[in-house]
Amino acid sequence: MKIDVNSDMGEGFGPYRIGDDEALMNIVSSANIACGFHAGDPLIMDRTVRMAKAKGVGIGAHPGLPDLLGFGRRVIQMDATEIEKHMVYQIGALQAIALNAGHRVTHVSFHAAMGNMVNADPDMADLVARAIAAVDRDLIVFSMPDMEIVRAAQAAGLRVLTMFLADRAYDADANLVSRKLRNSVITSPDAVAKRVQRFLDSGTIETIEGQSIKIEARSILVHSDTPGAVDLAATVRRVIEQGGGTITPATALLA
What we know:
Elements: E1 2-9, H1 21-24, E2 30-34, H2 42-55, E3 58-62, H3 80-101, E4 105-109, H4 112-120, H5 122-135, E5 140-143, H6 148-155, E6 159-165, H7 189-202, E7 204-206, E8 212-214, E9 219-221, H8 229-242, E10 246-247, H9 250-253
Parallel strand pairs: 1-2, 1-9, 1-10, 2-3, 3-4, 4-5, 5-6, 6-9
Antiparallel strand pairs: 7-8
Helix pairs in contact: 2-3, 3-5, 4-5, 5-6, 7-8
């Protein structure tokens, strides 16, 4: 089995850092890089891109809402033009920095509230998918399966790579459990190992209610800001490789 492992990176600002990007770059095959709105700045973006290039890690834009204070996790009401231009701006910023560093942006993975919006709102999903396609039709959209953005991206002629979030709890409808709820974030390497092994063996996971649900995915995400993220990502990689799998960037999976 070939599978991508990805993580959100570059999510600091100025002297502040969130996550151990240097360590994660040795583990993942794809990095979703914050583009300056929920986190990140030009220097952090450049440094993260150059680290990824040195490690042979694919890079993608990780656009979020303009909410540094709330880390992009709060809903901000924006009209269609604002959403479109904010999406284009963030992708374009990372593309320019990548070009300057000799690397290439290959995918888009949405952050927090922005992701929730494009997952659930068909009009928002269509708008964002068209904006991405207008910038670069070769960009791959990363998403949880069966979301509005999956449908919209495919309708816009974009490729989609669906993800399983190893460090987040799911409910019976295959949606993420709110971070406000207990046990919504999974920080135990043993628990993550069992989840990933089950997913690889059967394509299923156990929900927070104890039910079994099917997940169609070819990429596994570990958030860099989850406590113990490096150990969790290393656990994901170990389980995949011990089962005979190969960690493969998104572009190679969808070539």
